[in-house]
Amino acid sequence: xxxxxxxxxxxxxxxxxxxxxxxxxxxxxxxxxxxxxxxxxxxxxxxxxxxxxxxxxxxxxxxxxxxxxxxxxxxxxxxxxxxxxxxxxxxxxxxxxxxxxxxxxxxxxxxxxxxxxxxxxxxxxxxxxxxxxxxxxxxxxxxxxxxxxxxxxxxxxxxxxxxxxxxxxxxxxxxxxxxxxxxxxxxxxxxxxxxxxxxxxxxxxxxxxxxxxxxxxxxxxxxxxxxxxxxxxxxxxxxxxxxxxxxxxxxxxxxxxxxxxxxxxxxxxxxxxxxxxxxxxxxxxxxxxxxxxxxxxxxxxxxxxxxxxxxxxxxxxxxxxxxxxxxxxxxxxxxxxxxxxxxxxxxxxxxxxxx
Amino acid sequence: xxxxxxxxxxxxxxxxxxxxxxxxxxxxxxxxxxxxxxxxxxxxxxxxxxxxxxxxxxxxxxxxxxxxxxxxxxxxxxxxxxxxxxxxxxxxxxxxxxxxxxxxxxxxxxx
Lengths: 355, 111
Known about the structure:
Oligomer: heterodimer
Largest sheet of chain A: 5 strands, antiparallel
Number of helices of chain B: 5
Strand order of the largest sheet of chain A: 6-7-8-10-9
Structural class of chain B: alpha/beta
Distance between the termini of chain B: 33 Å
């Protein structure tokens, strides 16, 4: 340091100049320095926000944000965001105005965002929906600011993601027990949900990829509805989807499928009855019973609703009704509602099968 | 024929049976159950001409891939008649489990 800066004469000179400068500044804008600093920070924030608007696209979620009840709109929304992600642009998911939000949409949304990091979003303004969103565990699976945190759920919900071991019986067991407790069913009623969950997990192994079995994440969200004794299960796997991995039945259908002339919706009945199955070579003769078992269980009174959505098809498994979707989903989504119905039929399926 | 041996699935194997194969990433697959528990005891029962009792209670469920990968495979290898001659099932919690497994033994191949 130069010697002159340590001399008293320089210090006095420096102080005088500093005070004069300060007086001049006050005269100029008449703003208190703290207030000025705050305004400067806001200005910077606004600038950052403006910059975000150039690189991020704001997408308004459908006001009915339910995958089961508003399937096409939700798929369209995700397709639109996918387009921006592919162009390496970020997306701001605006859910503030959502008036109807369901657990199935949250499960799908979490699965969809996996592996993506250029996105932002907000919560629904509606306090009940906001709470549903916060308690889902969504924030445990995405990077968030401190202001957005998961809240402990009071209803014993469960959100699980699996990527390593594909079939996890312990998770299935835990998921079953959460539903059994909420619906006041007993330990004698565990079979339907447990068997379905294991088959779902096993299927992710088969439908994960056409070339590489078993390399696929799946998500399970168990939501205990606080308003009624119903537990809602959402199971998502983002593999290729059941229909892409199916081997069509008969030579003609095989040729038609090969050249994309056979629509997925035309294979639904064969799929549900177990006449066609995934392209697995080992033990083909004893395979193919998983989906028929799911269908048989779905028709019992244990389940209020039961849907499968895969590729461009939506199936109401309870009624057998099916819909061609406007947008395709890469993956498979199963949703069911467990209920405690007085008519729960203990003789559920095997008598039907053996008839 | 007299019952001389018993398998309690919940204790001798697991209360949470998994899917078909070990390669599915599950510890408690039908394949493991067949190789480590069911087949050795069944073979002994056949050799010594006695009944093997299998207690199905105390488990979360019997997924079709587990049943097919264990009882179904055993039936394919040894024939349904032989399996049902040497195995009896007990299921107080849920009698449908018993029917489901016997159905699988009788019809191991898909329709």
